Amino acid sequence: MELILEKSTIRSYRWGDEESLVLHGNNYKIWRNLRNLFPYPYTKDMAKYWLEIVTAEDPETNFAIAIDDQVVGAIGLKLEGDIFYRTAEIGYWLGEEFWGRGIMPEAVRALTEWGFTKFDLARIYAGVFEHNLGSIRVLEKAGYQFEARLRKNVTKQGRTFDQMIYAIVRE
Q1: Does residue 171 have a pLDDT over 90?
Q2: Neighbours of 3 (CB within 10 A)
Q3: What's the pTM value of the predicted model, to 2 decimals?
Q4: Which long-range CB contacts under 8 A does 97-102 form with residues at least 24 apart?
């Protein structure tokens, strides 16, 4: 898969992305806003493990965000099942040196539209830690609407706090 955008490209992962994944993903400021499944420190072995998983996905739902063919972030959808089969959760991260450039709102908009079309989704949502104001702004710029505050819903580094739910629906 490849979506060429104005500021970046969303593309399939490939072998050879390990170094740029480590370069941009091994950052405490990124890790503190993601689920614990995203490791810190982010090592080359972890990047290889991730590539083993995503290059075998079927259907493919996790993608690299690339600039000049170097991975500077990631974006993906987690498809729900059972009665939620027309719903997906979106997740993403971006290397710190690329923050504030409008890259992520553009990528979120593009992957959202791709997901609605590719999987016939009716709803895509994101759960954001209450202190992650940058991610909240990304979702709002991408057209997502605030739906709920889940009080004391997540715990990271021994601290329990609220999770904000943002969603977009296809009418």
Answers
A1: no
A2: 17
A3: 0.96
A4: 97/24, 97/72, 98/24, 98/67, 98/72, 98/73, 99/134, 101/7, 102/7, 102/141
